[in-house]
Amino acid sequence: MLTVHAAPLVLEVGAAAVVEGAVAVDGDRIAAIGPYEDVVAAHPSARVRRWPGLLTPGLRQDRARELLTRCYHPDPREADELGELPLWGEEFERLAAAMDTARRAGSVRRGLQRMLRHGTTHVVGPFGADDPVLRTAVSRAGLVQTRGRPGDGPPDLDPFAAGGDLAATAHGPLAVGGRADFAVFDVADEAALRAGGARLCVATVLAGRLVHRAR
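Above: the chain sequence. Below: its structure as tokens.
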């Protein structure tokens, strides 16, 4: 079923912003991008989802491999003991020394879910045959493996933590005929997005599927 995702501002990257814009999705592809009224008029039978804020291309997580292999993502049931944030460094090494395969797989799955909640659609590997747990989890999540830039310092679930603007942090521009990988953030513009970070994501669409919705 064709779906129109509407937002007060659509940033395609590499093109002018569309105020009161919309993206029409047919299957896993983008069928149209433009002013809401024009898109709806061209697709009158489409289901409409209205979002607050800013619709952008999905983000690229350059530190994905570190976040999944060198961090532990606590289970909510462990929050009283371990907190809710990813653990890395000495804390991770202490846990990893006694971690079995099932617990590690759970951490990887939660890490991927948290990336989706930060608007991530593309992840930088490698996720090869040397690590079947990781490779299987990334494949099942549907995230796109891509190339990116190495990072320094503690890995962060927020792709904007590296300091890049939207053009440098997005997986690429939105384009008609391209795969429908995008995110929505409850902010007014790109400046507010960079200031507040990807934690303000309210929706993530991956290959046309709504995989995260905060409201």
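The two ends are 22 Å apart (CA to CA).
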